Amino acid sequence: MTSFEVRSESPDFVALGNRVSSNISSLKFLALHSRTLNEKSSLSFNFNYDVNRQTQPNISDAYSIGVGTSYRWMDGLTTNFNFRHGRNSTGAEDISVLLFLVWSQPKERQFVTVSTESTSGVSRADWTYEPQTGVEGSRSRLNVLKKPTGSGYGGDYEYTGNRTRLAAAHQVEVINSDPSDPKAKGKSVHVTNLQFGSALVFAGGRFDITRPVFDSFAIFDPLNNVKNETIQINPKKDETHSGQSDAFGSAVLPELSSYTVTNIIIKQKSSSKGNSLPKDHFTLRPGYRSGYNISIGTDATVYFKTKLLNPDGSPASMLVGSAVYLNDSKVEPVTVFTNKSGLLRSEGFRTGRFKLEISDDQYEPVEFEIPSSVTDEFEIPSIQLKERKK
Fold it and tell me: Which of 187, 226, 295, 305 is the most buried (most CB within 10 A)?
């Protein structure tokens, strides 16, 4: 891969998040080249050159050049070597060498990194263990570092709950009282940090508790047939998810990003007959720090059973049709079909009057009614179709 970029910037140009009042760079040249040498190694080269404005007598052009290579010793074990030479706008030059080792064990969900940098003289080793991601997931990390002024070690722990987020960290830094004397007694500085986060969100007339919200959020409120079901947001094959409904309220997804199209999947953890979700895929386009309350579920909780017969009394096999709800024209028809024995089994029905229309124009529509006393399952032994009059 090779890329080259030339950028011109005005004196008042400031990058987002940068508080520098003036921009001394008038023209930037950036080049990058990377290639794979073989199955185990790769090489990269980068070059940056800044043509700077003479805002002060000591301002000069700045540049940096770097070469890097990586080598994969075996599955999960990779080393990186990077060399950099640069000069800043004041003319000061520096040369640095960075060594980086990565040891990844995805099956064990462990990750080890070791790095050393020549300019600062800092060496560091980190170990990360993340047995599970998503809700009820945790991450533990330990670190050891060595630098010219002393050494340090510490660790931290993070837990992501369905409605809370916990974090604890402790870091120890041993500072040499006399940097010139390696045997001098050091002073230990301990820093402990404990965090607990939760949030009360409101949207569409509903309050819910969730993890801390930094941008936008969505509430998925189970109603009607799935009110007592456990609804999970974005479930994965490893049985992790991004949120779920429980005794404390609806399922909430607090990690939505503004102005980003987001596809969301919801799923029932377990369901009983007639309690399926009428819609399980959603696409959201959040505005700036917005909130959504999405009601899920339906009052169509009846599981309807019958057997369709031809005019001669034989099973009406392999037919497709739709059951139109006559009590409310706004309700979408239920698509139904029969098997080889003429049996019709379908959920998504509600109490009231229906008109069964067979896609084949050979049959007349048939009306039937589901009594208001039915709550879960209703069966008509058989329905005999009539040939459509020509």
Answer: 226
